[in-house]
Automatic annotation (TrEMBL):
This is Diacylglycerol kinase. The lineage of its organism: Bacteria, Bacillati, Actinomycetota, Actinomycetes, Kitasatosporales. GO terms for molecular function: ATP binding; ATP-dependent diacylglycerol kinase activity; metal ion binding. Belongs to the diacylglycerol/lipid kinase family. Transmembrane segments: none annotated. It is an enzyme of class 2 (transferase). It comes from Streptomyces hundungensis. GO terms for biological process: phospholipid biosynthetic process. Its EC number is 2.7.1.107. Keywords: ATP-binding, Kinase, Lipid biosynthesis, Lipid metabolism, Magnesium, Metal-binding, Nucleotide-binding, Phospholipid biosynthesis, Phospholipid metabolism, Transferase.
Length: 310
């Protein structure tokens, strides 16, 4: 293993926290004896080109400094390779770092843990989702939540997360259940009316919303959460339970555990790791052990499967 480490930095993550997090993370790696090269990039395409070159050139590790969007971009370079991925969580959501048990907004500690894993030859192989050639780490979202994202992304005011709160209120006022066609790995297509369908490789999205609370990063399977045809009143009542994961016991919620899934619904956009993928239909497969992460072994989720769709 080369002693040169590539630090992949999003300086705008978390309203500038990414830029501030890079220095203490780099200092911790240098203190451990590693040479650190920083990659920024003029834009996402340029940044990805640069980190792919670093991976192909044999960098000892790629360490993403930022949020889940930055992790998602890094995955496009390291997934399926022998290059390990480290995460210095400095974004807004940080759901992948949370799933790995890594520190949130403590870049020096995150750098120390990455250095320790590299020096000891330790790491954990975890699963990833793949849609065509695109990889994702946490959750593929579709339905009500993706419509909120669509609306929030179109809003120029206000800034920050508050605009997504406003977007949620607007979508609640206009929301109607969505007709889905869901094809699981048994080959049968189910037609359902649903509020949302979330496909979880990891358990949470949106900064700790445990939509697929039992998801296990090492079991080779997705946990799929289908929230049925809720009324607005029911959705408002159930929504706070998502942060604890207790929504999975609600009668309007059904879960599956599958290796692959196809989602189809008119007028619905898919998002993964908070990044826009495009309109449904989308087919996702879970690829076991697709990336080695510089992190402790994640605690496995509960294996029991709830009742399926009719």
């Amino acid at each position: 293993m080369t002693s040169e480490i590539t630090l992949f930095v999003n300086p705008t993550a978390g309203r500038g926290r990414g830029a501030h997090a890079a220095q203490p993370a780099a200092s911790a790696l240098r203190a451990a004896g590693f040479s650190v090269r920083t990659v920024l990039g003029q834009d996402a395409d340029d940044a990805l080109r640069r980190v792919r070159e670093a991976v192909e050139g044999g960098t000892g590790a790629l360490i993403a400094v930022g949020g889940d969007g930055m992790v998602n971009l890094a995955l496009q370079a390291v997934a399926g390779t022998a290059t390990p991925l480290g995460v210095v969580a400095a974004g807004t959501g940080n759901d992948f770092a949370r799933a790995l048990g890594l520190p949130i907004r403590d870049p020096a500690r995150a750098g120390e843990l990455a250095a320790r894993a590299l020096k000891g030859g330790h790491g954990t192989d975890v699963d990833l989702g793949r849609i065509g050639e695109r990889w994702f780490a946490t959750v593929l979202a579709s339905g009500f939540d993706s419509k909120v994202n669509d609306r929030g992304n179109r809003m120029r005011w206000p800034g920050g997360r508050f605009k997504y709160d406003l977007a949620m209120l607007a979508e609640l006022a206009a929301f109607k259940p969505i007709p889905y066609k869901i094809t699981l790995d048994d080959g049968e297509t189910r037609e359902v009316e649903a509020t949302l369908v979330a496909v979880g490789n990891a358990s949470s999205y949106g900064g700790g919303m445990r939509i697929c609370a039992d998801a296990d990063l090492t079991d080779g399977l997705f946990d799929v959460t289908v929230v049925g045809d809720c009324s607005r009143a029911t959705l408002i009542k159930v929504f706070p339970r998502v942060y604890r994961g207790t929504h999975l016991g609600h009668p309007k919620v059904t879960t599956y555990r599958v290796a692959s899934i196809t989602l189809a619904a008119d007028g619905v956009t898919g998002y993964a790791d908070g990044e826009r993928l495009g309109p449904l239909p989308l087919t996702a497969e879970c690829v076991r052990g697709a990336v080695r992460v510089l992190a402790p072994l994640p605690a496995p989720g509960r294996k029991a499967v709830h009742s399926g769709l009719p």
